[in-house]
Amino acid sequence: MPRSDSQPESPVVAYPGWFTDFLDDRVIRKPSPHTTKAYRQDFEAIATLVAGQAEDVVNLEAAALDKDTLRAAFAVYARTHSAASIRRCWSTWNTLCTYLFTAELLGANPMPLIGRPKVPKSLPKSYSDNTVTGLVTAIDADTGSARDSDWPERDRAIVFTALLAGPRAEELIRADIGDVRRTDDGGGVLHVRGKGNKDRRIPFGKELLDVIEQYLESRVVRFPPARRRVPDSDTLSRFSSNAPLFVGVDGERITRGTLQYRILRAFKRAGINSERPAGALVHGLRHTFATELANAHVSVYTLMKLLGHESMVTSQRYVDGAGTETRSATDKNPLYRFLSPRTEYSNQPVDSRGVQGS
């Protein structure tokens, strides 16, 4: 059985000099903290299997990393890890062995001769219209609740930002208020710091900006600023640009646990928790964003830019179509129907064309 992502940290081991040199080489490329952590975890897992025990990893010679040794280690590793974990670990070791080859510490990179699970070719599952309707209706049911933990304005902003801009969960958590910029056409742009410290800008419509501003207005009520700012018609200007965009009930940056729990709670309250794929919460909303744009005939290249994918192969899973500019592409997103013709969500049935009844 593949073990879950909540597995305990790998034992701390001393690194051989050639792996420390590899990490130093990667630092120059400015990897994200998540990537650096993955390098260490994946190295420790396989190196411990090759060396026999964690204490001997420090003495491991690069020349010992041949095809048969690494294949045997990966075979053991695969017994207790998911396909996604194996692919990531394989990628780490492929990068490492490529470095060792260029540093003339290996005669060849053996990783291409070691098998790995194929990337699933099936389209990631998105949420249906009825699922999105139920999700938002469950959130709106918290309006007027006396419980501090219930904050429908914030939860709506989280859901619609994920649906209409497609950020990853970590990108939502790291977003600051200064990352939301108003544009001349009345909409906005979300500046996202993505995987590998790669930035991208995702344009969105006025309807989403209204939802975000309604949430920020409710936040001012919950957490009155210590110093009164100069009155400004622009809600975004009332906050420091480096203040977190989404916060918990304590006023601090929202945690991953809280973010995922609020969406899970909405699914359960709506009675539709069985309709989502296992583990799909924020990422399911991101898949829905991508799938709807694919259905609107957005090009693979444009979708790759909006989602922050490194390869078109990943984006190709969503779409085959002609090219358009990113602004016109996001404006095509049919999910805006959930915020039209007014920002206040209307719980009306959606017909087969995706049009709400009157």
UniProtKB/TrEMBL annotation:
It comes from Mycolicibacterium chlorophenolicum. Residues 122-331 form the Tyr recombinase domain. GO terms for cellular component: cytoplasm. Keywords: Cell cycle, Cell division, Chromosome partition, Cytoplasm, DNA integration, DNA recombination, DNA-binding. GO terms for molecular function: DNA binding. Pfam families: Phage_integrase. GO terms for biological process: cell division; chromosome segregation; DNA integration; DNA recombination. This is Tyrosine recombinase XerD. InterPro entries: CB, DNA_brk_join_enz, Integrase-like_cat_sf, Integrase_catalytic, Integrase_recombinase_N, Tyrosine_recombinase_XerCD. The keyword Cytoplasm applies. Residues 13-101 form the Core-binding (CB) domain. The keyword Protein biosynthesis does not apply. Coiled coil: none annotated. It is found in: Cytoplasm. It comes from the Bacteria. The lineage of its organism: Bacteria, Bacillati, Actinomycetota, Actinomycetes, Mycobacteriales.
